[in-house]
Amino acid sequence: MKIRTSRARLVAPLFLRPALGAFAVVTACAAHAQQADASAPVQLAQNLRAPSLAETVVTATRTPQPLSDLVADVTVLDRETIETSGATGLADVLARVPGIEISRNGGPGTTTSVFLRGAESRFTAVYIDGVRMDSQSTGGAAWESIPLALIDRIEVLRGPAGAVYGSDAMGGVVQIFTKRGERGIAPYVGVGIGSHGTYKAEAGVSGASGTIDYAFGIAREQSKGFNARTTATANPDRDGYESTSANARVGLQINATHRLEGTLLVNDMESGYDTSPVNDDRNLHKLHALGLNWQAQWTTAYKTRLQITDSRDKYETKPSIYLSDTHLRGYLFQNEWRQGAHLLTAALERREDNLENAPIDRTRSQDAIALGYGYSAGGHTLQANVRHDSDSEFGGKGTGSLAYGYAFAPRWRATASVGTAFRAPTLYHRFSEYGTGSLNPESSRNVEVGLRWAEGSSSFSATAYRNRVQDLITFGAPGPCPSTFGCYTNTARAEYKGVTLAGSYRVGAVQLRGSMDFQRPRDLDTGKQLRRRATRHATFGADTQVAGWTVGTEVQASGRRFDNDANTLTLGGYTLVNLYASTRIARDFTLVARIDNLVDKHYETARTYATPGRVAYVGVKWAPQ
C-alpha cells in the first residue's frame, strides 16, 4: 500500500498550526499547576482514549476479552469521556474517534451519516445493549435519534466483522451500553443550558441489593436551533429539535452461575428541516431497543448466552406525508468453551426484518451459524472465525476472518488480519418503486496490519488497511424497476484504503492525545473520491488540572471533500478548536463548561446545509458520592 509521504509532510503542519496555540495555553496552565504543588498527584481526564491493558472489551469477538489478547483495532469511550465532551449528539462524540468522519444535513436531529474508515454509513453495525439497530429503508442506524445522555460506554471496532456479526459489519461495529447497577444506591440529576436556546435535563438512579441490580434514566433535550439551509429558496426559520428518552436495565442473579437481564431504551425526537421557502418541515423519529438475556455458566469451562431482542426505527415527516417503519427481531444462542489458552465459540442466530413504507409491507429473515477459535499464550494471539448466513430472499452467504498478533517485545505488539463481510440489500432497495428484486448483497474483502505500543498512560498505534467492496448498491439509470427516474443497481465497486495513526503521551502534567487518518475512499470504476469523505482528517487534544479544574482543548481538522460522485461540488476543508473545563463545585456537584468552534469557523459537511458557529454549553450534575 502506498501512502504518499509528501502529502503527509504538507498536511501535518496545516492541522497542527491551530492546535499549537491551544496546546500552549494548556501547557502553560500545567506549568502553573506544578509550581503550585509539585508533589500533588495529577488526575488527568482523557477525553478520548484507547482502553487500558487491563480493560475488558466485548465487541471484537462478541465475548469478553482483555486488551492484552485483542488483535482488533478498538477504541473505548467511557461515561466520563462522554460527559466531559459536552457534545450534543452521539455522532459528535464519535467524530473525535480515530477513523471516523460525520456529515449532517443541518443541526442536531437531522439526518446524520457516520463514515468508519471511509465506508458508507450503512456499513457500520450498531448495537444498543446487544440489540441490533437498523433501517430497512435507508440502511444503517439512525444516529441522530440515539440519545447520548443515557449512554454509559461505547466500543468502536474498526474493520469488517462479518464473520462475527453477519450482515452490515463491512466497515466496523459500534456497541453502545447503558449503565448497569452496582451495590448501593446512586441517584443523579443534571441540567444544562447552551447556545441556540439549548436546554438539557436528566435524572436517574442505579443500584443493587441482594440478587437484583437496576439502572433507570430519563433525559429531555430541546433547542431552538438555527436555520438548517444556506440557500435563498429555503425557509429561513430556526430549525430546532426536541428529544425525550428513557432507559431501564434490570438484572437478576438467580444463583452463582445463572443471570437474567432485561434492557430497554426508547427515544422520541422531533426536529426541523427545510425543503421549501414556506413549509416548516418536521422530522418525527421514534426508536426503541428491547433485550432479554439469560447467561449460564454450566461448568468452569463452558457457558452459554440466550438473547431475544426487538428494535424499531420509525421515521415520518410533516406536513408532507412520508412514513418508514422498520421492525427487527433477533434471537441469539451463543456457546463459549475455554480451556487454558484456547477459546471455542459457536452461535446460532436468527434475524427477522420488517419494513412498512407504503406500498411496501415486507418481511425477510436471516438464519446463521457462526464458529470461532481463539488462542493466546506466550505473546502469540490467534483469532479465526467463520459464519454462514441464509437469507430468505437471496440465499446463502459465507464470511470468514483470520487475525494474528505477536507481542515481540515488552509493550510492543504487531497484528495482521484478513476478513470478508457483506451487507444484504434493504427491503426498500428491493421492493420500492426504485427497487430491483435481483440485487445481490454488497460484499467486501479486507486486509490490514497494525503496530501498537503502550506504557502507562502513553500509547501509540499505526494501522494500515485496504477494504475492497464489490456489488456496491448505487442509484442508477431507469431500466430494471418501475420508476422512470432511476433504479438501484449493483454496478459499482469501491476501495477504502488508508493509514490511521493514534497516540497519547504525558508531558509533565499534561496529557496529549491525537489521531491522523490518511485515506483514499474511491470509486474503483471512475477513480473519483467518494462523496462527503476527506482524504485526510485528524483530531488533537490536551488536558490537565489547574486549581481543582480539569481544563482541556481539542482540535478537529478535515481536508477537502466533494458533495457529488463527479467530484465537481467541493466542500472546503476546515479546522475547529474546542475548549472544555470541569470541576467539583461542592461535594456532590460537578460543573461542566464547553465552547465549540471557538474561532467561529464557517464550514459544511453537506452542501447547502448549515453547521453551528461558535456555541457554548454549561451544565451542573448532582451525584452523591
Explain how this protein is built.
- The protein is mainly beta and 625 residues long.
- The chain starts with a helix and ends with a strand.
- The chain has a 22-stranded antiparallel barrel.
- Helix content is 8%, strand content 57%.
Task: Give the tags.
single chain; 625 residues; mainly beta; 22-stranded antiparallel β-barrel; 5-stranded mixed sheet; 5 helices; 33 strands; 8% helix; globular
Number of strands: 33
Give the biggest beta sheet.
22 strands, antiparallel, barrel
Distance between the termini: 52 Å
Number of helices: 5
- Give me the secondary-structure category: mainly beta
Mean pLDDT: 89
Overall body shape: globular
Low-confidence stretches: 1-51
Strand content: over 45%
Briefly characterize the structure.
This protein has helices at 5-36, 79-85, 90-94, 162-165, 427-431; strands at residues 56-57, 65-66, 73-78, 100-104, 112-116, 124-128, 131-133, 153-158, 172-177, 184-194, 198-209, 212-226, 239-253, 258-273, 281-297, 302-318, 322-339, 342-357, 360-377, 380-391, 395-409, 412-423, 442-455, 458-476, 487-507, 510-523, 536-546, 549-558, 561-562, 570-571, 574-586, 589-596, 615-622. The chain is mainly β and 625 residues long. Strand 21 (395-409) and strand 22 form a beta hairpin.
